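Our collaborator T.R. sent over the components below with a one-line note: 'Predict the complex.' Nothing else. No constraints on interfaces, no templates requested, no preferences about which chain binds where. So this is a plain run: every listed entity goes in together, and whatever single assembly comes back becomes the starting point for the next discussion.
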Amino acid sequence: MLFPEIVITGCGNPLFADDGFGPAVVEELQKLQLPDNVKVIDAGLGGPHFIFTLIDPEKTKKLIIIDIADFGAEPGDLTLLRVEDLPAGSYRDAHSWDLTEPLQRLKDRVDITVIGCQPKHVTAPDFELGLTEEVSNAVPKTVRTVLELIGVDYGMAIENLRKEECQRAFGES
Amino acid sequence: MSKVVEISPTTRHEGHSKLVLKVNDEGIIERGDWLSITPVRGVEKLAIGKTMDQVPKIASRVCGICPIAHTLAGIEAMEGSIRCEIPEDAKLLRVILQAANRLHSIALHNILILPDFYIPGTETKINPFTPEEPVRSVAKRIQRIREIGQTIGEIAGGEAVHPSNPRVGGMYKACSERAVYKMYDLAKEGLTLAHQQMEFMLAVLNNMKKRDWTDVAGKQIPLPKTLGYHDLGYMASHPMYASSNLDEIPGWDPDRWTDVRPWDWYMGEVEVSLADPSYPIGGTSPVGTKANPQMEACTGVPLYDGAPVEVGPRARLATYKNFTEKGTWAQHVARQLEYTDCCYTMINALDAYNPSGKVLADCIPQGDGSMGWAANEAPRGCDVHLAKVKDGRVLWYEMLVPTTWNFPTCSRALTGAPWQVAELIVRGYDPCVSCATHMIVVDEDKRIVAQKLIQ
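Returned assembly:
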Protein backbone atom coordinates (compact mmCIF):
# COMPACT_ATOMS: atom_id res chain seq x y z
CA MET A 1 0.00 0.00 0.00
CA LEU A 2 1.55 3.23 -1.14
CA PHE A 3 -0.34 5.59 1.16
CA PRO A 4 -1.89 4.48 4.48
CA GLU A 5 -4.81 5.85 6.47
CA ILE A 6 -3.12 9.11 7.44
CA VAL A 7 -0.76 10.94 5.10
CA ILE A 8 1.27 13.98 6.15
CA THR A 9 3.11 15.84 3.41
CA GLY A 10 5.53 18.73 3.68
CA CYS A 11 5.60 20.76 0.47
CA GLY A 12 8.10 23.32 -0.71
CA ASN A 13 11.63 23.86 -1.83
CA PRO A 14 14.45 24.24 0.73
CA LEU A 15 16.48 26.08 -1.92
CA PHE A 16 14.25 29.13 -1.53
CA ALA A 17 14.65 30.01 2.16
CA ASP A 18 11.24 29.88 3.91
CA ASP A 19 9.77 27.82 1.08
CA GLY A 20 11.58 24.93 2.79
CA PHE A 21 9.17 25.08 5.73
CA GLY A 22 7.18 21.97 4.72
CA PRO A 23 10.24 19.72 4.32
CA ALA A 24 11.68 21.12 7.58
CA VAL A 25 8.55 20.08 9.50
CA VAL A 26 8.72 16.65 7.87
CA GLU A 27 12.32 16.29 9.01
CA GLU A 28 11.20 16.83 12.61
CA LEU A 29 8.20 14.52 12.30
CA GLN A 30 10.38 11.76 10.91
CA LYS A 31 12.38 11.76 14.14
CA LEU A 32 9.25 10.67 16.00
CA GLN A 33 7.92 7.14 16.26
CA LEU A 34 4.44 7.46 14.80
CA PRO A 35 1.71 4.80 14.48
CA ASP A 36 1.83 2.42 11.55
CA ASN A 37 -1.20 4.01 9.93
CA VAL A 38 0.68 7.30 9.51
CA LYS A 39 3.09 8.14 6.73
CA VAL A 40 5.14 11.33 6.66
CA ILE A 41 6.45 12.40 3.26
CA ASP A 42 8.79 15.12 2.11
CA ALA A 43 6.86 16.01 -1.04
CA GLY A 44 9.25 18.73 -2.15
CA LEU A 45 7.65 20.20 -5.24
CA GLY A 46 6.07 16.92 -6.24
CA GLY A 47 2.93 16.90 -4.07
CA PRO A 48 0.34 17.43 -6.81
CA HIS A 49 1.68 14.81 -9.23
CA PHE A 50 3.46 12.31 -6.98
CA ILE A 51 1.05 12.24 -4.07
CA PHE A 52 -2.28 14.03 -4.38
CA THR A 53 -3.20 12.25 -7.61
CA LEU A 54 -2.30 8.87 -6.11
CA ILE A 55 -4.27 9.05 -2.88
CA ASP A 56 -6.88 6.30 -2.72
CA PRO A 57 -9.90 7.45 -0.66
CA GLU A 58 -10.69 3.82 0.09
CA LYS A 59 -7.51 3.65 2.14
CA THR A 60 -6.47 7.18 3.03
CA LYS A 61 -8.88 9.01 5.32
CA LYS A 62 -6.82 11.99 6.40
CA LEU A 63 -4.38 14.15 4.47
CA ILE A 64 -2.40 16.92 6.14
CA ILE A 65 -0.46 19.31 3.93
CA ILE A 66 2.20 21.58 5.38
CA ASP A 67 3.40 24.54 3.36
CA ILE A 68 3.97 28.25 3.45
CA ALA A 69 0.99 30.47 2.69
CA ASP A 70 0.87 34.19 2.20
CA PHE A 71 -2.15 35.25 4.23
CA GLY A 72 -0.96 38.64 5.36
CA ALA A 73 0.04 37.66 8.90
CA GLU A 74 3.28 37.98 10.84
CA PRO A 75 6.13 35.71 9.68
CA GLY A 76 5.88 32.36 11.44
CA ASP A 77 2.15 32.66 12.12
CA LEU A 78 0.17 29.56 11.29
CA THR A 79 -3.23 29.06 9.78
CA LEU A 80 -5.39 26.04 9.17
CA LEU A 81 -7.02 25.87 5.75
CA ARG A 82 -9.54 23.56 4.16
CA VAL A 83 -9.62 22.81 0.47
CA GLU A 84 -12.61 25.18 0.22
CA ASP A 85 -10.30 27.99 1.28
CA LEU A 86 -8.04 27.47 -1.72
CA PRO A 87 -9.68 29.46 -4.50
CA ALA A 88 -10.28 27.10 -7.43
CA GLY A 89 -7.92 27.75 -10.31
CA SER A 90 -6.04 30.43 -8.38
CA TYR A 91 -3.01 28.28 -8.08
CA ARG A 92 -1.27 26.46 -10.87
CA ASP A 93 2.02 25.01 -9.78
CA ALA A 94 5.29 25.25 -11.59
CA HIS A 95 4.47 22.13 -13.50
CA SER A 96 1.18 23.32 -14.95
CA TRP A 97 -0.79 21.19 -12.52
CA ASP A 98 -3.68 22.81 -10.82
CA LEU A 99 -3.09 21.97 -7.20
CA THR A 100 -6.65 22.47 -6.13
CA GLU A 101 -7.97 20.14 -8.80
CA PRO A 102 -6.76 16.81 -7.32
CA LEU A 103 -7.61 18.06 -3.84
CA GLN A 104 -11.11 19.05 -4.94
CA ARG A 105 -11.58 15.51 -6.18
CA LEU A 106 -10.55 14.11 -2.82
CA LYS A 107 -12.06 16.54 -0.37
CA ASP A 108 -15.45 14.89 0.06
CA ARG A 109 -13.94 11.51 0.85
CA VAL A 110 -10.68 12.44 2.53
CA ASP A 111 -10.34 14.82 5.46
CA ILE A 112 -7.85 17.37 4.12
CA THR A 113 -6.19 20.02 6.24
CA VAL A 114 -3.58 22.47 5.07
CA ILE A 115 -1.30 23.98 7.69
CA GLY A 116 0.00 27.22 6.25
CA CYS A 117 2.87 29.20 7.69
CA GLN A 118 3.35 32.85 6.83
CA PRO A 119 6.82 33.15 5.27
CA LYS A 120 9.14 36.05 5.92
CA HIS A 121 11.50 35.58 3.05
CA VAL A 122 11.12 33.49 -0.11
CA THR A 123 14.05 33.99 -2.41
CA ALA A 124 12.79 32.36 -5.62
CA PRO A 125 14.24 32.46 -8.20
CA ASP A 126 17.47 33.02 -6.22
CA PHE A 127 18.68 30.16 -4.08
CA GLU A 128 19.21 30.55 -0.37
CA LEU A 129 19.44 27.65 2.03
CA GLY A 130 17.86 27.85 5.46
CA LEU A 131 14.67 29.14 7.05
CA THR A 132 14.42 32.54 8.66
CA GLU A 133 14.36 32.51 12.43
CA GLU A 134 10.64 33.34 12.64
CA VAL A 135 9.63 30.51 10.35
CA SER A 136 12.09 28.10 11.92
CA ASN A 137 10.53 28.89 15.30
CA ALA A 138 7.15 27.85 13.88
CA VAL A 139 8.36 24.30 13.25
CA PRO A 140 7.77 22.90 16.79
CA LYS A 141 4.30 24.44 16.95
CA THR A 142 3.49 22.90 13.60
CA VAL A 143 4.68 19.49 14.77
CA ARG A 144 2.42 19.80 17.81
CA THR A 145 -0.48 20.85 15.61
CA VAL A 146 0.05 17.85 13.36
CA LEU A 147 0.16 15.50 16.35
CA GLU A 148 -3.06 17.01 17.69
CA LEU A 149 -4.72 16.65 14.30
CA ILE A 150 -3.86 12.96 14.12
CA GLY A 151 -4.68 12.34 17.77
CA VAL A 152 -1.22 11.32 18.89
CA ASP A 153 -0.20 12.30 22.40
CA TYR A 154 3.53 12.31 22.26
CA GLY A 155 3.99 13.14 25.92
CA MET A 156 7.53 14.13 26.69
CA ALA A 157 8.45 14.65 23.09
CA ILE A 158 5.92 17.43 22.81
CA GLU A 159 7.21 18.82 26.06
CA ASN A 160 10.69 18.76 24.64
CA LEU A 161 9.51 20.56 21.55
CA ARG A 162 7.95 23.18 23.75
CA LYS A 163 11.22 23.49 25.65
CA GLU A 164 13.07 23.93 22.40
CA GLU A 165 10.65 26.68 21.46
CA CYS A 166 11.12 28.35 24.85
CA GLN A 167 14.87 28.11 24.55
CA ARG A 168 14.70 29.80 21.19
CA ALA A 169 12.52 32.55 22.63
CA PHE A 170 14.90 32.88 25.56
CA GLY A 171 17.83 33.07 23.18
CA GLU A 172 16.14 35.92 21.37
CA SER A 173 15.74 37.95 24.52
CA MET B 1 4.67 38.09 -45.29
CA SER B 2 5.44 36.45 -41.97
CA LYS B 3 3.25 37.00 -38.98
CA VAL B 4 4.15 36.31 -35.37
CA VAL B 5 2.03 34.32 -32.95
CA GLU B 6 2.87 33.63 -29.33
CA ILE B 7 1.58 30.83 -27.08
CA SER B 8 2.44 31.66 -23.50
CA PRO B 9 2.54 29.69 -21.34
CA THR B 10 2.48 26.30 -22.99
CA THR B 11 0.46 23.73 -21.07
CA ARG B 12 0.14 20.07 -20.04
CA HIS B 13 3.78 19.51 -19.36
CA GLU B 14 6.05 20.33 -16.44
CA GLY B 15 7.31 23.88 -16.11
CA HIS B 16 6.89 27.30 -17.62
CA SER B 17 7.78 27.76 -21.27
CA LYS B 18 6.43 29.58 -24.29
CA LEU B 19 6.39 29.44 -28.06
CA VAL B 20 7.18 32.37 -30.35
CA LEU B 21 6.30 31.40 -33.91
CA LYS B 22 6.88 33.17 -37.23
CA VAL B 23 4.24 31.84 -39.60
CA ASN B 24 3.40 32.32 -43.27
CA ASP B 25 0.05 33.38 -44.73
CA GLU B 26 -1.23 29.80 -44.39
CA GLY B 27 -0.29 29.69 -40.71
CA ILE B 28 2.63 27.31 -41.29
CA ILE B 29 5.60 27.82 -38.98
CA GLU B 30 8.64 29.23 -40.80
CA ARG B 31 10.68 29.61 -37.66
CA GLY B 32 9.73 28.59 -34.18
CA ASP B 33 11.40 29.35 -30.88
CA TRP B 34 10.47 27.31 -27.85
CA LEU B 35 11.97 28.78 -24.75
CA SER B 36 12.00 28.41 -21.02
CA ILE B 37 10.62 31.34 -19.08
CA THR B 38 11.45 29.65 -15.80
CA PRO B 39 13.95 31.69 -13.81
CA VAL B 40 17.59 30.74 -14.14
CA ARG B 41 18.84 28.03 -11.82
CA GLY B 42 21.74 28.98 -9.60
CA VAL B 43 22.49 25.58 -8.21
CA GLU B 44 25.92 25.40 -9.81
CA LYS B 45 27.08 28.40 -7.79
CA LEU B 46 25.33 27.24 -4.65
CA ALA B 47 27.14 23.90 -4.85
CA ILE B 48 30.62 25.39 -4.62
CA GLY B 49 32.17 24.72 -1.23
CA LYS B 50 29.44 22.32 -0.12
CA THR B 51 30.30 18.71 0.68
CA MET B 52 30.00 16.07 -2.02
CA ASP B 53 27.19 14.49 0.02
CA GLN B 54 25.17 17.69 0.25
CA VAL B 55 25.24 18.72 -3.39
CA PRO B 56 23.24 15.85 -4.96
CA LYS B 57 20.51 16.45 -2.38
CA ILE B 58 20.53 20.15 -3.22
CA ALA B 59 20.51 19.34 -6.94
CA SER B 60 17.50 17.07 -6.52
CA ARG B 61 15.46 20.09 -5.43
CA VAL B 62 15.75 21.98 -8.70
CA CYS B 63 12.76 20.07 -10.00
CA GLY B 64 9.67 18.42 -8.58
CA ILE B 65 9.40 15.85 -11.33
CA CYS B 66 12.96 14.51 -11.69
CA PRO B 67 14.45 14.38 -8.19
CA ILE B 68 15.49 10.75 -8.72
CA ALA B 69 17.48 11.40 -11.90
CA HIS B 70 19.15 14.45 -10.35
CA THR B 71 20.01 12.60 -7.16
CA LEU B 72 21.58 9.69 -9.03
CA ALA B 73 23.39 11.85 -11.59
CA GLY B 74 24.66 14.15 -8.84
CA ILE B 75 25.95 11.30 -6.70
CA GLU B 76 27.60 9.53 -9.61
CA ALA B 77 29.25 12.73 -10.82
CA MET B 78 30.83 12.95 -7.35
CA GLU B 79 31.88 9.30 -7.52
CA GLY B 80 33.28 9.98 -10.97
CA SER B 81 35.38 12.81 -9.61
CA ILE B 82 36.71 10.95 -6.56
CA ARG B 83 37.09 7.74 -8.60
CA CYS B 84 34.92 5.65 -6.30
CA GLU B 85 33.61 2.34 -7.58
CA ILE B 86 30.48 1.16 -5.79
CA PRO B 87 29.50 -2.46 -4.98
CA GLU B 88 27.42 -4.29 -7.56
CA ASP B 89 24.41 -4.69 -5.26
CA ALA B 90 24.28 -0.94 -4.67
CA LYS B 91 24.34 -0.38 -8.40
CA LEU B 92 21.47 -2.85 -8.83
CA LEU B 93 19.33 -0.96 -6.31
CA ARG B 94 20.00 2.27 -8.21
CA VAL B 95 19.01 0.62 -11.48
CA ILE B 96 15.76 -0.60 -9.90
CA LEU B 97 15.07 2.91 -8.60
CA GLN B 98 15.77 4.37 -12.03
CA ALA B 99 13.51 1.92 -13.87
CA ALA B 100 10.72 2.36 -11.33
CA ASN B 101 10.89 6.11 -11.74
CA ARG B 102 10.77 5.85 -15.52
CA LEU B 103 7.78 3.50 -15.34
CA HIS B 104 5.92 6.04 -13.21
CA SER B 105 6.97 8.90 -15.46
CA ILE B 106 5.76 7.31 -18.70
CA ALA B 107 2.38 6.67 -17.11
CA LEU B 108 2.21 10.26 -15.88
CA HIS B 109 3.01 11.51 -19.37
CA ASN B 110 0.22 9.35 -20.78
CA ILE B 111 -2.27 11.35 -18.72
CA LEU B 112 -0.83 14.64 -19.98
CA ILE B 113 -0.95 13.73 -23.68
CA LEU B 114 -4.13 11.65 -23.92
CA PRO B 115 -6.38 14.72 -24.42
CA ASP B 116 -4.52 15.32 -27.71
CA PHE B 117 -5.66 11.97 -29.12
CA TYR B 118 -8.85 10.30 -30.28
CA ILE B 119 -10.47 7.05 -29.21
CA PRO B 120 -9.64 4.88 -32.26
CA GLY B 121 -12.53 4.62 -34.72
CA THR B 122 -14.29 7.66 -33.28
CA GLU B 123 -14.18 11.43 -33.49
CA THR B 124 -14.05 11.66 -29.69
CA LYS B 125 -10.97 13.06 -28.04
CA ILE B 126 -9.82 11.24 -24.95
CA ASN B 127 -10.61 12.70 -21.56
CA PRO B 128 -8.52 10.67 -19.12
CA PHE B 129 -10.80 11.67 -16.23
CA THR B 130 -14.09 10.57 -17.75
CA PRO B 131 -16.01 7.85 -15.89
CA GLU B 132 -17.02 6.38 -19.26
CA GLU B 133 -15.50 3.19 -20.63
CA PRO B 134 -13.15 2.33 -22.25
CA VAL B 135 -11.20 5.32 -20.95
CA ARG B 136 -12.06 4.64 -17.32
CA SER B 137 -10.24 1.30 -17.38
CA VAL B 138 -7.25 2.92 -19.03
CA ALA B 139 -7.12 5.61 -16.35
CA LYS B 140 -7.30 2.98 -13.61
CA ARG B 141 -4.49 1.04 -15.25
CA ILE B 142 -2.36 4.17 -15.50
CA GLN B 143 -2.96 4.86 -11.81
CA ARG B 144 -1.92 1.34 -10.86
CA ILE B 145 1.23 1.56 -12.97
CA ARG B 146 2.09 4.84 -11.26
CA GLU B 147 1.50 3.27 -7.85
CA ILE B 148 3.71 0.33 -8.73
CA GLY B 149 6.52 2.55 -10.00
CA GLN B 150 6.39 4.77 -6.99
CA THR B 151 6.14 1.93 -4.48
CA ILE B 152 9.14 0.09 -5.93
CA GLY B 153 11.02 3.39 -6.05
CA GLU B 154 10.21 3.99 -2.42
CA ILE B 155 11.41 0.54 -1.36
CA ALA B 156 14.67 0.72 -3.32
CA GLY B 157 15.26 4.45 -2.89
CA GLY B 158 14.04 5.02 0.64
CA GLU B 159 11.48 7.70 -0.18
CA ALA B 160 9.04 8.08 -3.03
CA VAL B 161 9.79 11.65 -4.07
CA HIS B 162 13.25 12.57 -2.81
CA PRO B 163 15.15 9.28 -2.54
CA SER B 164 17.11 9.12 0.69
CA ASN B 165 18.85 5.78 0.20
CA PRO B 166 21.46 6.58 -2.50
CA ARG B 167 24.68 8.12 -1.20
CA VAL B 168 28.16 8.80 -2.43
CA GLY B 169 29.88 5.41 -2.31
CA GLY B 170 26.74 3.30 -2.74
CA MET B 171 23.53 3.08 -0.74
CA TYR B 172 22.74 3.68 2.93
CA LYS B 173 20.73 0.48 3.32
CA ALA B 174 20.42 -2.85 1.55
CA CYS B 175 16.95 -4.15 0.75
CA SER B 176 15.90 -7.24 2.68
CA GLU B 177 14.88 -10.49 1.06
CA ARG B 178 11.26 -9.69 1.94
CA ALA B 179 11.53 -6.30 0.28
CA VAL B 180 12.96 -7.97 -2.82
CA TYR B 181 9.97 -10.35 -3.00
CA LYS B 182 7.60 -7.43 -2.71
CA MET B 183 9.37 -5.50 -5.47
CA TYR B 184 9.45 -8.62 -7.62
CA ASP B 185 5.69 -9.18 -7.27
CA LEU B 186 5.00 -5.55 -8.06
CA ALA B 187 7.31 -5.59 -11.10
CA LYS B 188 5.58 -8.69 -12.45
CA GLU B 189 2.16 -7.09 -12.01
CA GLY B 190 3.59 -3.94 -13.61
CA LEU B 191 4.84 -5.92 -16.58
CA THR B 192 1.37 -7.23 -17.40
CA LEU B 193 -0.16 -3.77 -17.07
CA ALA B 194 2.71 -2.16 -18.99
CA HIS B 195 2.12 -4.53 -21.90
CA GLN B 196 -1.57 -3.67 -21.94
CA GLN B 197 -0.97 0.05 -21.64
CA MET B 198 1.72 0.03 -24.32
CA GLU B 199 -0.62 -1.78 -26.72
CA PHE B 200 -3.40 0.70 -25.99
CA MET B 201 -1.15 3.71 -26.55
CA LEU B 202 0.29 2.26 -29.75
CA ALA B 203 -3.25 1.74 -31.08
CA VAL B 204 -4.11 5.34 -30.22
CA LEU B 205 -0.92 6.58 -31.88
CA ASN B 206 -1.41 4.49 -35.02
CA ASN B 207 -4.92 5.89 -35.29
CA MET B 208 -3.51 9.41 -34.97
CA LYS B 209 -0.85 8.80 -37.61
CA LYS B 210 -3.58 7.97 -40.11
CA ARG B 211 -5.49 11.18 -39.49
CA ASP B 212 -5.15 14.17 -41.82
CA TRP B 213 -6.36 16.71 -39.30
CA THR B 214 -6.99 17.31 -35.65
CA ASP B 215 -9.42 19.52 -33.84
CA VAL B 216 -8.03 22.56 -32.04
CA ALA B 217 -10.52 25.01 -30.54
CA GLY B 218 -13.27 23.75 -32.83
CA LYS B 219 -11.22 24.13 -36.02
CA GLN B 220 -9.88 21.34 -38.20
CA ILE B 221 -6.11 21.79 -38.35
CA PRO B 222 -4.17 19.76 -40.95
CA LEU B 223 -1.64 17.30 -39.55
CA PRO B 224 1.52 17.04 -41.68
CA LYS B 225 2.98 13.55 -41.98
CA THR B 226 6.31 15.08 -41.03
CA LEU B 227 5.08 16.52 -37.75
CA GLY B 228 8.05 17.25 -35.52
CA TYR B 229 10.73 16.19 -37.99
CA HIS B 230 14.20 17.70 -37.72
CA ASP B 231 17.56 16.85 -39.21
CA LEU B 232 19.57 17.14 -36.02
CA GLY B 233 21.24 14.24 -34.22
CA TYR B 234 20.53 12.23 -31.07
CA MET B 235 22.34 11.87 -27.79
CA ALA B 236 21.95 8.99 -25.32
CA SER B 237 24.42 7.54 -22.87
CA HIS B 238 22.82 4.17 -22.07
CA PRO B 239 19.64 2.28 -23.01
CA MET B 240 18.21 2.35 -19.47
CA TYR B 241 20.46 3.63 -16.74
CA ALA B 242 23.51 5.84 -17.07
CA SER B 243 27.14 6.16 -17.97
CA SER B 244 29.97 7.90 -16.19
CA ASN B 245 33.65 8.61 -16.65
CA LEU B 246 34.37 5.47 -14.60
CA ASP B 247 32.98 3.25 -17.37
CA GLU B 248 35.42 1.35 -19.53
CA ILE B 249 33.63 2.65 -22.61
CA PRO B 250 31.85 5.86 -21.55
CA GLY B 251 28.54 6.59 -23.25
CA TRP B 252 29.05 10.34 -23.20
CA ASP B 253 32.00 12.61 -23.93
CA PRO B 254 32.43 16.00 -22.23
CA ASP B 255 34.83 17.10 -24.96
CA ARG B 256 32.00 16.99 -27.48
CA TRP B 257 29.84 19.34 -25.40
CA THR B 258 29.83 23.11 -25.85
CA ASP B 259 27.37 25.71 -24.70
CA VAL B 260 26.13 28.91 -26.32
CA ARG B 261 24.07 31.68 -24.83
CA PRO B 262 20.40 32.17 -25.76
CA TRP B 263 21.11 35.44 -27.62
CA ASP B 264 23.28 33.48 -30.04
CA TRP B 265 20.45 31.13 -30.80
CA TYR B 266 16.96 32.60 -30.40
CA MET B 267 15.31 35.32 -32.49
CA GLY B 268 15.43 38.95 -31.39
CA GLU B 269 12.56 41.28 -30.55
CA VAL B 270 9.34 40.68 -32.47
CA GLU B 271 5.79 41.92 -32.15
CA VAL B 272 2.81 39.61 -32.12
CA SER B 273 0.76 40.23 -35.28
CA LEU B 274 -1.57 37.22 -35.23
CA ALA B 275 -3.76 36.22 -32.32
CA ASP B 276 -6.50 33.68 -31.71
CA PRO B 277 -8.55 34.28 -28.56
CA SER B 278 -10.26 30.90 -29.01
CA TYR B 279 -7.01 28.96 -28.65
CA PRO B 280 -7.26 26.62 -25.60
CA ILE B 281 -6.57 27.90 -22.09
CA GLY B 282 -6.99 31.63 -22.57
CA GLY B 283 -6.04 32.18 -26.21
CA THR B 284 -2.73 33.26 -27.68
CA SER B 285 -1.04 36.54 -26.75
CA PRO B 286 -2.85 39.63 -28.09
CA VAL B 287 -1.66 41.49 -31.17
CA GLY B 288 0.92 44.10 -30.25
CA THR B 289 2.54 42.01 -27.49
CA LYS B 290 6.31 42.32 -27.63
CA ALA B 291 8.39 39.16 -27.44
CA ASN B 292 12.14 38.91 -27.25
CA PRO B 293 13.25 35.27 -27.07
CA GLN B 294 16.95 36.22 -27.06
CA MET B 295 16.48 38.08 -23.81
CA GLU B 296 13.67 36.04 -22.29
CA ALA B 297 15.06 32.52 -22.71
CA CYS B 298 16.31 31.34 -19.34
CA THR B 299 18.51 28.47 -20.43
CA GLY B 300 21.81 28.20 -22.23
CA VAL B 301 21.91 26.19 -25.44
CA PRO B 302 24.04 23.06 -25.05
CA LEU B 303 25.52 21.61 -28.22
CA TYR B 304 27.01 18.19 -28.90
CA ASP B 305 29.52 18.13 -31.75
CA GLY B 306 28.59 21.78 -32.39
CA ALA B 307 24.88 21.25 -32.91
CA PRO B 308 21.74 20.75 -30.84
CA VAL B 309 20.70 17.16 -30.31
CA GLU B 310 17.55 15.35 -29.29
CA VAL B 311 17.56 13.44 -26.03
CA GLY B 312 14.89 11.12 -24.65
CA PRO B 313 13.27 7.80 -25.52
CA ARG B 314 13.63 8.14 -29.30
CA ALA B 315 17.29 9.11 -28.90
CA ARG B 316 17.85 6.02 -26.74
CA LEU B 317 16.10 3.70 -29.14
CA ALA B 318 17.80 5.25 -32.18
CA THR B 319 21.21 4.95 -30.51
CA TYR B 320 20.88 1.46 -29.07
CA LYS B 321 18.04 -0.33 -30.86
CA ASN B 322 18.12 0.82 -34.48
CA PHE B 323 14.86 2.70 -34.12
CA THR B 324 14.51 4.79 -37.28
CA GLU B 325 11.11 6.47 -37.10
CA LYS B 326 11.14 10.26 -36.93
CA GLY B 327 8.96 13.03 -35.61
CA THR B 328 6.51 13.57 -32.80
CA TRP B 329 4.55 10.34 -33.20
CA ALA B 330 7.81 8.38 -33.16
CA GLN B 331 8.78 10.02 -29.89
CA HIS B 332 5.52 8.89 -28.37
CA VAL B 333 5.93 5.38 -29.79
CA ALA B 334 9.47 5.12 -28.43
CA ARG B 335 8.29 6.19 -24.98
CA GLN B 336 5.61 3.48 -24.94
CA LEU B 337 8.18 0.89 -26.01
CA GLU B 338 10.13 1.73 -22.86
CA TYR B 339 7.21 0.69 -20.65
CA THR B 340 8.05 -2.99 -20.68
CA ASP B 341 11.81 -2.32 -20.69
CA CYS B 342 11.36 -0.73 -17.27
CA CYS B 343 9.70 -3.84 -15.85
CA TYR B 344 12.14 -6.29 -17.42
CA THR B 345 15.03 -4.19 -16.12
CA MET B 346 13.65 -4.33 -12.58
CA ILE B 347 12.96 -8.06 -12.75
CA ASN B 348 16.45 -8.80 -14.07
CA ALA B 349 18.10 -6.55 -11.49
CA LEU B 350 16.09 -8.18 -8.68
CA ASP B 351 17.15 -11.60 -9.93
CA ALA B 352 20.78 -10.53 -9.74
CA TYR B 353 20.52 -8.67 -6.43
CA ASN B 354 21.88 -10.28 -3.28
CA PRO B 355 20.13 -8.98 -0.12
CA SER B 356 23.16 -9.97 1.94
CA GLY B 357 25.57 -8.19 -0.35
CA LYS B 358 27.58 -5.10 0.40
CA VAL B 359 26.05 -1.76 -0.62
CA LEU B 360 28.77 0.65 0.45
CA ALA B 361 32.28 0.98 -0.88
CA ASP B 362 35.07 0.02 1.56
CA CYS B 363 36.92 3.20 0.81
CA ILE B 364 35.42 6.52 -0.21
CA PRO B 365 38.23 8.79 -1.49
CA GLN B 366 37.85 12.51 -0.79
CA GLY B 367 38.93 13.67 -4.25
CA ASP B 368 41.82 15.58 -5.76
CA GLY B 369 39.83 18.04 -7.90
CA SER B 370 39.63 15.80 -10.98
CA MET B 371 36.62 16.17 -13.21
CA GLY B 372 33.91 13.52 -13.02
CA TRP B 373 30.63 13.26 -14.81
CA ALA B 374 27.54 11.10 -14.91
CA ALA B 375 25.03 11.03 -17.75
CA ASN B 376 21.81 9.61 -16.31
CA GLU B 377 19.12 8.55 -18.77
CA ALA B 378 16.25 10.29 -17.01
CA PRO B 379 12.73 9.61 -18.32
CA ARG B 380 12.98 12.72 -20.51
CA GLY B 381 16.52 12.12 -21.68
CA CYS B 382 20.16 12.45 -20.83
CA ASP B 383 20.67 14.32 -17.56
CA VAL B 384 24.35 15.15 -17.34
CA HIS B 385 25.97 16.31 -14.11
CA LEU B 386 29.64 17.24 -13.95
CA ALA B 387 31.67 17.79 -10.79
CA LYS B 388 35.12 18.45 -9.42
CA VAL B 389 35.64 17.35 -5.81
CA LYS B 390 38.67 18.05 -3.65
CA ASP B 391 39.01 16.97 -0.02
CA GLY B 392 35.32 16.09 0.07
CA ARG B 393 34.21 19.55 -1.09
CA VAL B 394 32.79 20.53 -4.44
CA LEU B 395 34.98 22.90 -6.41
CA TRP B 396 32.84 23.02 -9.55
CA TYR B 397 29.46 21.68 -10.58
CA GLU B 398 27.38 21.74 -13.74
CA MET B 399 23.97 20.32 -14.65
CA LEU B 400 22.79 19.81 -18.23
CA VAL B 401 19.21 18.67 -17.78
CA PRO B 402 17.26 16.87 -20.54
CA THR B 403 14.90 19.64 -21.56
CA THR B 404 17.81 22.06 -21.84
CA TRP B 405 19.16 19.81 -24.58
CA ASN B 406 15.74 19.54 -26.21
CA PHE B 407 14.77 23.24 -26.32
CA PRO B 408 16.79 24.16 -29.44
CA THR B 409 16.12 20.82 -31.14
CA CYS B 410 12.39 21.06 -30.65
CA SER B 411 12.53 24.69 -31.85
CA ARG B 412 13.84 23.45 -35.20
CA ALA B 413 11.33 20.61 -35.27
CA LEU B 414 8.48 23.13 -35.26
CA THR B 415 9.19 24.29 -38.82
CA GLY B 416 6.56 23.23 -41.34
CA ALA B 417 3.74 22.57 -38.88
CA PRO B 418 0.54 24.62 -38.55
CA TRP B 419 1.08 26.87 -35.53
CA GLN B 420 -2.00 25.45 -33.78
CA VAL B 421 -0.31 22.06 -33.36
CA ALA B 422 3.02 23.42 -32.09
CA GLU B 423 2.17 22.33 -28.55
CA LEU B 424 1.66 18.78 -29.80
CA ILE B 425 5.28 18.82 -30.91
CA VAL B 426 6.44 20.23 -27.58
CA ARG B 427 4.58 17.54 -25.64
CA GLY B 428 6.31 14.85 -27.67
CA TYR B 429 9.44 15.75 -25.74
CA ASP B 430 7.66 15.37 -22.36
CA PRO B 431 9.36 18.56 -21.29
CA CYS B 432 10.36 19.15 -17.71
CA VAL B 433 11.18 22.81 -17.44
CA SER B 434 12.65 22.61 -13.99
CA CYS B 435 11.21 25.12 -11.65
CA ALA B 436 10.01 25.77 -8.19
CA THR B 437 7.39 27.73 -6.35
CA HIS B 438 5.53 27.51 -3.12
CA MET B 439 2.20 25.85 -3.04
CA ILE B 440 -0.50 28.21 -1.93
CA VAL B 441 -1.70 31.52 -3.25
CA VAL B 442 -4.70 32.87 -1.47
CA ASP B 443 -7.28 35.56 -2.18
CA GLU B 444 -6.01 39.04 -2.78
CA ASP B 445 -8.09 40.38 0.11
CA LYS B 446 -6.86 37.50 2.32
CA ARG B 447 -10.21 37.66 4.11
CA ILE B 448 -11.06 33.97 4.28
CA VAL B 449 -7.82 32.67 5.64
CA ALA B 450 -7.28 35.44 8.12
CA GLN B 451 -10.25 34.14 10.08
CA LYS B 452 -8.51 30.85 10.74
CA LEU B 453 -5.27 31.96 12.30
CA ILE B 454 -3.88 29.59 14.88
CA GLN B 455 -3.04 31.78 17.83
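Summary for T.R.: The mean pLDDT of chain A is 84.
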